[in-house]
Amino acid sequence: MYCPDEIERILISEDEIKAKVAEMGRVLTEEYKDKNPLFICVLKGSVVFFADLMREMHCPLEINFLKASSYGSSTVSAGTVKLDVGAGIEFEGRHVVIVEDILDTARTLYSLKNDLITRNPASLKIVTLLDKPSRRVVKGFTADYTGFAIDDLFVVGYGLDYDERFRNLPYVGTLKPEVYS
Ligand code: PRP
Fold first, then answer.
1. What band does 166 get if pLDDT is binned at 50, 70 and 90?
2. For residue 175, how many other CB atoms are within 10 A of its CB?
3. Residue pLDDT, tens place only, 2-24
4. How far is the CA of 21 from the centre of ligand 1 (A)?
5. Order of strands across the sheet with 82-84?
6. I need a labelling partner for 98 at 20 to 30 A (CA). Which of 10, 56, 64, 107 fits?
7. Rounded to the nearest 5 degrees, what angle is found at the Cα of 42, between the Cα atoms of 77 and 114?
8. What is the greatest pairwise CA distance in the chain?
9. H helix or E strand, kind and range, residue 66
10. Ligand 1 atom closest to the CA of 105, numbered from 1
11. Which residues are catalytic?
12. Start-to-end CA span in the chain (Å)
């Protein structure tokens, strides 16, 4: 298995992720099977989770992509969120499901949710693979569906990066502190 030197340890294995994504797919299929939902991938981090989750959805759905970024190349949130909500995506009347890799301060999803709500979706829910509740800045903000709640560790892999690296690891791992300190 590919495990770069910078990885300290595997926090969530490929098998654990696979089982969790299958379980989330079952729950979401049940909820959305008659709703032709619009699944939104929040680039870039969510791309791996999104691709796996949509294949665990056993019902009709549509997909689209948005770009949100807050971190730059630092390990701490910059506190500002850049949203690029694609022109031409029709949200009105749709059952929208935002798919994220990680909920951290919640600034990104708070901004995105507030933006999308003005576009009159029939419903709007948030799915995240990872949640770091101890890092929340937007108090009380939660996802509707969460895969794993984790401690305040700097994690990479399965779509998550450090300075654009490690997104291709099939597991979620922690970085050795010397990499980012
Ligand atoms: C990450 C992640 C979420 C956001 C969560 O994206 O994918 O979108 O940060 O952090 P928050 O809850 O503190 O807002 P990032 O801005 O690093 O961009 P990327 O997805 O392109 O890596």
1. very high
2. 22
3. 999 999 999 999 999 999 999 99
4. 20
5. 82-84, 62-69, 38-43, 95-103, 123-131, 145-149
6. 10
7. 75
8. 49
9. strand 62-69
10. 13
11. 104
12. 26
Amino acid at 149: A
CA nearest to 107, candidates 73, 132, 74:
132
pLDDT digits (tens, 9 = 90+) for 9-64: 999 999 999 999 999 999 999 999 999 999 999 999 999 999 999 999 999 999 99
In angstroms, the CA 174 to CA 148 distance is 15
Is 5 in contact with 167 (CB distance < 8 Å)?
Answer: no
Measuring from atom 6 of ligand 1, which residue has the nearest CA? 69
Task: Map residue 44 onto helix, strand or coil.
Answer: coil
- Using an 8 Å Cβ cutoff, are 7 and 173 in contact? yes
Neighbours of 30 (CB within 10 A): 10
